[in-house]
Specification:
Layout (H helix, E strand, L loop, with lengths): L9 E3 L11 E8 L13 E8 L3 E9 L6 E7 L9 E3 L8 E6 L4 E9 L6 E11 L11 E7 L12 E8 L4 E8 L4 E7 L9 E3 L8 E6 L4 E9 L5 E9 L2
Length: 249
């Protein structure tokens, strides 16, 4: 396929099995500064549409191919591209590259949105690995660490008016942590920030990759240091929540 075709506003990805590989892998090149699409912040982006079955798991990596781009990957339901992403990552692939593990909450077409943190943009390569369905995949490790809370009018609120609670975690470069945020009375959201950067964009976020509306996030530390895990919600509602997590390496 010619490169200029991949610059269309939205492309449907056909994931082709790589010979001899255990997973289905596809690779796609793009150039963001050639895209006419920009969001409200002036960031150029390109959309790629992917069909996923319920519970199907993918790993998406976006690598910068020149110095002008700091790529971000977002995953949206195609039916609501303008809304908040179901999952988002900036630098988990090692700065400046993005990497995100995602499990489809339902059978649907999902939009993989590649953005540039800077307005300049540049060339990138996106790799999509299909990892099987949740039912066929290896069971998730036991999440032993548990924090519980209850959002109420006394809880802190973010700029959108939604409640949140922050936790500090120390990780070394490349260390992975698996987190799950469950709530019955509201739609929970997980976000991870570099410590001290909570007012900016999160390094990673997830909305609905757990069962139902619950959040499930696999995060790889891009560098050694302290990170802030934010247990939040999609919109303001009171109610109890449970955060479980475990370091995987």
């Amino acid at each position: 396929m010619n490169k200029h075709i991949w610059r269309l506003p939205a492309m449907l990805l056909a994931l082709v099995a790589t010979a001899g590989a255990a997973q289905d892998v596809s690779r796609h090149e793009g150039t963001l500064n050639a895209s006419p699409q920009r969001n409200a912040r002036g960031q150029p982006f390109s959309d790629w549409d992917v069909w996923l079955n319920a519970g199907e798991r993918v790993r998406v990596t976006v690598e910068a191919r020149d110095a002008g781009i700091d790529p971000i990957i977002e995953i949206h339901p195609r039916s609501n591209r303008a809304g908040s992403p179901l999952a988002r990552d900036d630098d988990s692939g090692g700065y400046p590259d993005a990497r995100l593990d995602f499990a489809a909450p339902r059978a649907d077409v999902y939009t993989f949105r590649v953005l540039s943190y800077t307005a300049r943009g540049g060339d990138y390569e996106m790799t999509v690995e299909k990892l099987g369905t949740a039912a066929a995949a290896t069971a998730l490790p036991v999440l032993r660490a548990v924090n519980e809370g209850h959002f109420s009018n006394r809880s802190p609120r973010d700029a959108r008016g939604a409640h949140y609670s922050d936790f500090a975690v120390d990780l070394r470069a490349g260390q992975q942590v698996l987190l799950r945020l469950d709530a019955a009375g509201f739609d929970p959201v997980l976000r991870i920030y570099a410590s001290g950067g909570e007012s900016g964009d999160p390094l990673a976020t997830d909305d609905d990759s757990g069962e139902g509306l619950n959040a499930l996030l696999l995060f790889t530390a891009p560098h050694s240091g302290r990170f802030t895990v934010r247990a939040g919600q999609f919109s303001h509602r009171d109610g109890p929540w449970t955060l479980r997590f475990n370091r995987l390496n």
